[in-house]
Amino acid sequence: MSKLVLERVWKSFGDRDVLAQVDLAVAEHEVVALIGASGSGKSTLLRCVNLLEPVDDGRVLLDGVDISEPGRDVDAVRRRIGIVFQAFNLFPHLDVLGNVTLGPRRVLGFARRDAEARATELLARFGLADKASDYPDRLSGGQQQRVAIVRALAMDPELLLLDEITSALDPELVGEVLDVVRELKAGGMTMLIATHEMAFARSIADRVCFLDDGRICEEGPPAQVLDAPRHPRTQQFLQRVLRREDDTRP
Amino acid sequence: MSSATWRAIGVVAVTGALLLAGCGDDDDETAGGGGGSCETEDLTLVKEGTLTIGTDTPAFPPWFEDDDPTNGEGFESAVAYAVAEELGFAPEDVEWTVVPFNNAFAPGDKSFDFDINQVSISEEREQAIDFSDGYYDVNQAIVGFSDSEAASATSLEDLKGLKLGAQQGTTSLDFINDVIDPDQEPYVYNDNSAAKAALDAQQVDGIVLDLPTAFYVSAVEIEGTAVIGQFPSVGEDPEQFGLVFEEGNPLRDCVNEALASLRDSGRLAEIEQEWLSEVVDAPVIPVE
Amino acid sequence: MTEPSDPGRAPDPEAIRPQRPAGPTHRALAERAQRRRSAVIAGVSTVVVFGALAAIVVRAPGWGQVRRAFFSWDDFRASLGDIAPAFMLNVRIFLIAEVLILVVALAVAVARSSRSPVLFPVRVLATVYVDLLRGIPIILLIFLLGFGVPALRLDGVTNEPVVWATVALVLSYSAYVSEVFRAGIDSVHESQRAAARSLGLTEGKALRFVVLPQAVRRVIPPLLNDFIALQKETALVGLLGPIEAARQAQIYSSKTFNFTSYLAAAVIFVALTVPLTRFTDWLVSRRRDRVSAGRLA
């Protein structure tokens, strides 16, 4: 049984269909990369998984259980799924430790001391131990994003959603964030990653899905989708992206 | 500057000085000065040919009726028209203007020829304005609920423990502070409406007013109240109501003549009898 | 023929980083001179303007009388003796009202910002409350509650005018302040709420731990503004009888025909509000620095 299944999911905003009959399965410990142009629906897809957006039609199943059913305890579902946003969305009024311990303390009911101990451990693991009492506005973009990842991890999620987490970063900071994700994969975390970073997708993903205008146009192992795309639209998209990457390569 | 400019400045300065001197009228032929004739044509008036009288709003009974000073009803309305008649004005030559109580005797120019508004004559007030002779002798009185503890008060001592209230700036308030000297600080209100509302709300045990108003309040306005007591006037001079004039206004002397004439002819007493005959026994509380 | 430096030569990596020469920079010197000039101009113009104003006032024909009536030192001292203790009533009311207003306003703002269908009637009630209480002039409210409610003679309900005046102030100000809070809540970006909910926090906890702390910080300056206004409106309790500072000034002035007591009362009010206004300004400028420097939302 797959960890996560999206079954014939439809989602529209107004009269625009942002997701059109999306079928996607993610197995446990699998890392799936979502690629596609902006507006193709990647973010919406992720937000449908953690129920930030309600699906209009279709189902989202976690461990075979329909979590998208209206009336379901949404907060309980979200405890099991972690998400990291493009804009980090750290809480500016709390320091790093506060950001990381908020979930464990107020949702999972950890005592303050225990939550802080766990948090410190996690932060140390990702090289952020000395930043624990800093406020987010003092950190670089890369550090903030890493804190955001730690914040999600502190909840011990079964599934991690990463929504273009390097898109807002300066190029020299991207690497440190991607290293964290590599580590998570090595640890067996199930992940659904929306990304622009093709090289990264190639190196880390077990499967790549190309989203075009709300539909999964092509999906398969990275070598196939990225290097030998079959669908013309995939080819077009990759040509555009790779041309850009050529320009930016030193 | 040109001589024309200097002349203009001179005119402005002289006019300003005149205004400050408190003559306050347009058709003044001589600069200030008192005495002179009390013939109707010679009177110093705010508005030529008209007697402008000031009073506050709402105009309460028994001083006025129906909040309408022009109907000649109510003690003060009647007195005003009687004085006007003595000065040679027909009722239609009399105009009324609204003047809040405290404004009447504040220093400065006045928009009225005289103000009639239950203003008690006092030396302090005399510093800012001029009073006519008294047209009514006033006692202070307390209104309270007949079934309250306050109703059984018979001496000043009994009153000291009460929570009292009065209108701001009145001799009634002075009476509370100077003569009764209660243990609790009294409540002070902008006007008697508020004081009455407070009594009705039982936020005070009693309110101090002049006797006629007190009687009216207790008989007509607030159910269950009575005049708990009245105080004989302290000292030799009873408290009196006087008409208020702008400082230095020569009209005052003419009005005093009119009042004297009304008193002598018994007309003033008649008016008092007609409009204040409801003044019956209310227990006298000794203040000595 | 002059020889330009060789364009193809790479800069020497071993070269020492240049040292800044000692002493003030060119810019510092220029700014210093400019500041001096500005100070002189400011000084002269202040003297000229205020001097001219003062001259006009003092030479006005009525000045002597006005000075005696409004600026008499003896009356100032004499009236202050009564006004200062009366002012304690204003302060007491202000302190109690302020706390209550914060509580009520926050509750109303949260009610209005809630999205849950269960809370719909509460939301409607809150909206009606805000519309109504912002529409009714405080004076009317004070009379309605201060005289009206006690006149009903309800059992167990106090007649104390100070209590009802405070209630009126709280009801009225909470309506305004709740809108300030609501603006603060709205100003917190939706992504903050999304991030909080994504952690599994309930709507209520997300509000409590993530949105409100940010919202409140942002609206502290306008909040302080409303409270500075409140300090002065405590004078309205005088309408119901209790003697507070402004009333005491009025009492003094009607006895003596001197209006300096009003000046004394004004001075006392200002003494209370000026520190608060300066504090507000300081807070605003500090926030501005932080917001421009970092990402403190």
Report what the structure shows.
The complex is a heterotrimer of chains A (250), B (288) and C (297). With 250 residues, chain A is α/β, with parallel strands linked by helices. Chain A has helices spanning 42-49, 74-80, 96-106, 112-125, 141-153, 171-186, 198-204, 222-227, 232-248; strands at 4-13, 16-26, 31-35, 57-62, 65-66, 81-84, 159-163, 190-194, 207-212, 215-220. Among the domains of chain A are: 28-42 and 171-250, 3-Layer(aba) Sandwich (Rossmann fold), CATH 3.40.50.300; 89-163, no CATH class. In chain A, the strands form two sheets. Chain A has a six-stranded mixed β-sheet, with helices on both faces. In chain A, strands 2-1-4-5 form a four-stranded antiparallel β-sheet, with helices on one face. The longest helix of chain A is centred in the C-terminal third of the chain and has 17 residues, at 232-248. With 288 residues, chain B is an alpha/beta fold. Helix content of chain B is 34%, strand content 19%. Chain B has helices at residues 3-21, 75-87, 101-104, 123-126, 156-160, 171-180, 192-200, 211-221, 251-264, 267-276; strands spanning 51-55, 94-98, 114-115, 129-138, 140-145, 164-167, 187-189, 206-210, 225-231, 239-246. Residues 15-34 of chain B have low confidence and may be disordered. Chain C is mainly α and 297 residues long. Chain C has two domains: 31-62; 72-285, Orthogonal Bundle (MetI-like fold). Chain C is 76% helix and 0% strand. In chain C, helix 6 (161-187) crosses helix 8 (203-218), helix 9 packs antiparallel against helix 11 (260-293) and helix 10 (245-256) packs antiparallel against helix 11. In chain C, 32% of the residues are buried. Residues 293-297 of chain C have low confidence and may be disordered.
